[in-house]
Design goal:
Layout lengths: L3 H20 L3 H28 L1 H8 L3 H6 L1
Helix pairs in contact: 1-2
Length: 73
C-alpha cells in the first residue's frame, strides 16, 4: 500500500503527456512514454522492495522495539 501513491504519481504525470502525443497522432511517442513510465515505476518499486528485503531490521525497528519481531524480521 505504500508504493501505490508513488506509482499513481508517475501515472498522473504521464497522463497529459500520453494524451497530447496521442492527440497529435504520434503513436511512437505514446509507446515510448508508456514504456518509460512503466520502467520508472518498476524501478522505484524494485528499489524500495530491495531495500526492505536486504535490510529488514532497519525497517522493522521503525515500527516496533519488540525483540521477537525484530528477530523474525
Amino acid at each position: 500500500y505504500l508504493l501505490i501513491p508513488i506509482v499513481f504519481g508517475i501515472g498522473s504525470a504521464l497522463t497529459p503527456l500520453v494524451a497530447a502525443s496521442d492527440g497529435a497522432g504520434d503513436a511512437r511517442r505514446v509507446q515510448s512514454l508508456t514504456r518509460i513510465g512503466a520502467g520508472l515505476a518498476a524501478l522505484v518499486c524494485g528499489l524500495a522492495g530491495g531495500a526492505v528485503a536486504l535490510f529488514p531490521q532497519a525497517w522493522t525497528t521503525l515500527f516496533t522495539d519488540d525483540p521477537a519481531v525484530i528477530a523474525l524480521g
